[in-house]
Amino acid sequence: MVKRSDDAIFGGNTGRYPLGLVVECGQIWTVPVRRRIERVRWAKAGALWAEFGGRAVEKAGGFSGLVYGEVRESIMRIVFVFLALIWGSCAMAAPQVYVLDKAGSDVVFTWFLGKDAVRGDMPITRADLKLDFDRAAASTIDVVLDASQAKAGFAFATNAMRGPSILDAQSHPEIRFRSTKVIGQGAGAVVIGDLTIRGVTRSTRFDVTLYRGEGSLDLSQIAVLLKGSVVRSDFGATGWPDMVGNTIEINILARVSRVD
What we know:
22% of the residues lie in helices and 40% in strands. It is built from three helices and 13 strands, in the order βββααβββββαβββββ. The chain has helices at residues 31-59, 68-87, 155-162; strands spanning 7-8, 21-24, 27-30, 96-100, 106-113, 116-122, 124-131, 140-146, 174-185, 188-197, 200-212, 221-231, 247-258. It has an eight-stranded antiparallel beta barrel with strand order 4-7-8-9-10-11-12-13. Strands 2-3 form a two-stranded antiparallel sheet. Helix 1 packs antiparallel against helix 2. The longest helix is centred in the N-terminal third of the chain and has 29 residues, at 31-59. It starts with 6 loop residues before the first strand and ends with a strand.
């Protein structure tokens, strides 16, 4: 699982990087640093305005002899450079592609035997993520789990869970979640998507938090934690209703690396 000391990418409040982190073109800056960058950009833009404006006036022989066409051309050049300085660095920003690190990823789920909580686990087959740190809505998440290798905590429960009355893993060896909507929310995001279990698809919500390495600003390797729950009967997994609760809590931890 993700260590408590890890810093959440968006607004992390632990470790060395406090609340107020902002992301700009794939880089994380604290608010004071961001403000210094903006001041530098405005200063450069102002200098260019003075330079180009001064040249236009000089070229035209002073304000009294300015020619409309020359002034318009100079002003357009100034505006173009000005906008390029202020916003141009982000104009080409696009979602960044990440691929799964299987060794560091897993799914932990909790089911209830009567009132007792029992933990199980399931391997992740693959995870394809496109993350836009400026616009959460442009991000996509596609995760596939291996139901045939799921473990329910002890042998009898594992065999029952993989059997036809619950996961039916022989006929449906994969569980898949594909996002349809990502909403930035506080320090993380809410992702809504299609979850398919034993061939049945239902719209499902997960809360998502992104983590970077402790004390690091590097986004080339991050951890994505999805937390949610499902009602198993919604997917036709109705076996053992007198012993096993209907709600399953799910934590999906995918450690991923950016494709450069």
